């Protein structure tokens, strides 16, 4: 069974929780913790290059990172593919590279380029009709029908709720397997999206509800930005501790490279 088929099987059982990861060791740690899928974040991938998520990296960097992550784990990888990096012809190449990388799913968004993180202000979106063509191109380009094509809309902030909902319905009608309304900033937004798009498989990016609540609301996939923000916060605090005290507290159980080495070798001995 390929990774897309495995993801589809998992979604049939309930909400799939996919932690944010942006490199192989994070993905391996998530798999070892028992998560059944992981999410390759575009924000985190850009940050790993020392850059903000504002359209400063492209298809080459993103697809290469997707391949590294997919090669590191046996669980399905859901990957950010930004805007698809161009028109319908570019979309076809994006899908081909991501599929070759081994991802189970990818999402493309209706932002204008240069795009920016979905939680930042100042986003602009392309006409809905242009995005419909991109969705159709993505669906037509996949060689495996199991690859999950996710259509994301960032129209809520610039255009309002009704436009975002109408766009996502159009993207679903164009063939998207799942839709993703980004920029939900309140619990009420999350609950409203569940109602207004009832019956349409949705990916939810939120820390405002628990995975159990997301499952009750009917979301197919749940990704949690807070895990990545915690990573940045913990590392920053450790650096400040080293700067200020000359020490870094590490729990005794973690004072060895051996456990991580075993994890990376997939060696249980």
Short description:
The chain has 269 residues and is an alpha/beta fold. It contains 12 helices and 9 strands.
Characterize the main sheet: 9 strands, parallel
Query: pLDDT below 50 for ≥5 consecutive residues: which ranges?
Result: none
Which percent band covers the strand fraction?
Answer: 5-15%
Total strands: 9
Order of strands, widest sheet: 1-9-8-7-6-5-4-3-2
What overall form do the CA principal axes indicate? globular
Mean pLDDT: 95
Order of helical and strand elements: HEEHEHHEHEHEHHEHEHEHH
Distance between the termini: 28 Å
* Rg (C-alpha, Å): 19 Å
Enumerate how many helices there are, as a single number: 12
Write the layout of secondary structure elements.
Elements: H1 3-13, E1 16-17, E2 20-21, H2 24-32, E3 38-40, H3 42-48, H4 59-72, E4 77-80, H5 88-101, E5 105-109, H6 128-141, E6 148-153, H7 156-159, H8 161-173, E7 178-181, H9 187-196, E8 202-205, H10 211-217, E9 221-223, H11 225-245, H12 258-265
Parallel strand pairs: 1-9, 2-3, 3-4, 4-5, 5-6, 6-7, 7-8, 8-9
Helix pairs in contact: 2-4, 4-5, 5-6
Question: How would you describe this structure in keywords?
Answer:
269 residues; alpha/beta; 9-stranded parallel β-sheet; 12 helices; 12% strand; globular
């Amino acid at each position: 069974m390929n990774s897309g088929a495995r993801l589809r099987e998992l979604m049939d059982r309930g909400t799939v929780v996919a932690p944010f990861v942006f490199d192989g060791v994070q993905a391996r740690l998530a798999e070892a913790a028992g998560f059944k899928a992981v999410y390759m974040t575009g924000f985190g991938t850009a940050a790993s290059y020392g850059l903000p998520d504002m359209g400063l990296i492209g298809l080459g960097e993103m697809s290469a990172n997707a391949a590294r992550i997919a090669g590191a784990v046996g669980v399905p990888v859901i990957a950010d593919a930004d805007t698809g990096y161009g028109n319908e012809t570019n979309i076809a190449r994006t899908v081909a590279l991501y599929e070759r990388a081994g991802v189970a799913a990818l999402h493309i968004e209706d932002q204008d380029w240069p795009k920016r993180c979905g939680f930042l202000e100042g986003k602009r979106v392309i006409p809905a009709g242009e995005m419909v063509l991109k969705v159709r191109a993505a669906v037509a380009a996949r060689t495996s029908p199991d690859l999950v094509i996710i259509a994301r809309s960032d129209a809520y902030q610039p255009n309002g709720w009704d436009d975002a909902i109408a766009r996502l319905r159009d993207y679903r009608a164009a063939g998207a397997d799942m839709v993703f309304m980004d920029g939900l900033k309140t619990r009420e937004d999350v609950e409203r999206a569940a109602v207004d798009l009832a019956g349409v498989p949705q990916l939810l990016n939120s820390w405002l509800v628990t995975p159990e609540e997301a499952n009750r609301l009917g979301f197919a996939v749940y990704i949690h930005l807070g895990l990545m923000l915690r990573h940045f916060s913990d590392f920053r605090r450790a650096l400040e501790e080293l700067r200020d005290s000359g020490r870094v507290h590490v729990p005794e159980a973690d004072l060895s490279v051996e456990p991580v080495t075993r994890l990376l070798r997939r060696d249980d001995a």
